[in-house]
Amino acid sequence: MSARRSAPLSSRAGSSPAVVRLYGEIDLNTGDAVRQLLMDAIDAGDSVVVVDLSRVTFCDAGGLGVLIAAQHRARRRGVSLVLSSPGPQMVRLLEITGLDRNLPLMR
C-alpha cells in the first residue's frame, strides 16, 4: 500500500447515465472522498450511475464497503449503479467476496 493519497475523479457525460471515474486506491485514506463522490452522483437524479474502475489500482475492505453503501443508497433511490471496466484484481476481489452477484459489472 502506498502512503500517497490518490484523489478520485468525477465527470458527468450528458444527462444520463452519470459517469464517475475513479483512479488510484480506494482505501482508508480515500474512502470518505469516494463515498461522497458516489453519493453525490446517486443523489443528482440520474437513473443510472456508472462507476468506471478501469484506473483503480487497489481496493481494500473499506473500499468494498464504500461500493456496498453506494449500491444500497442507489437501490433506495431507484438508481441503477453499475461498475464498469474493473481490472483483473478488482474482478477477482468481487468474485471472492461474492459481491459480483450484487454489484452489476460491465466488463
TrEMBL record:
<dbReference type="InterPro" id="IPR003658">
    <property type="entry name" value="Anti-sigma_ant"/>
</dbReference>
<feature type="domain" description="STAS">
    <location>
        <begin position="19"/>
        <end position="107"/>
    </location>
</feature>
<dbReference type="GO" id="GO:0043856">
    <property type="term" value="F:anti-sigma factor antagonist activity"/>
</dbReference>
<protein>
    <recommendedName>
        <fullName>Anti-sigma factor antagonist</fullName>
    </recommendedName>
</protein>
<comment type="similarity">
    <text>Belongs to the anti-sigma-factor antagonist family.</text>
</comment>
<dbReference type="InterPro" id="IPR058548">
    <property type="entry name" value="MlaB-like_STAS"/>
</dbReference>
<dbReference type="Pfam" id="PF13466">
    <property type="entry name" value="STAS_2"/>
</dbReference>
<dbReference type="InterPro" id="IPR036513">
    <property type="entry name" value="STAS_dom_sf"/>
</dbReference>
<dbReference type="InterPro" id="IPR002645">
    <property type="entry name" value="STAS_dom"/>
</dbReference>
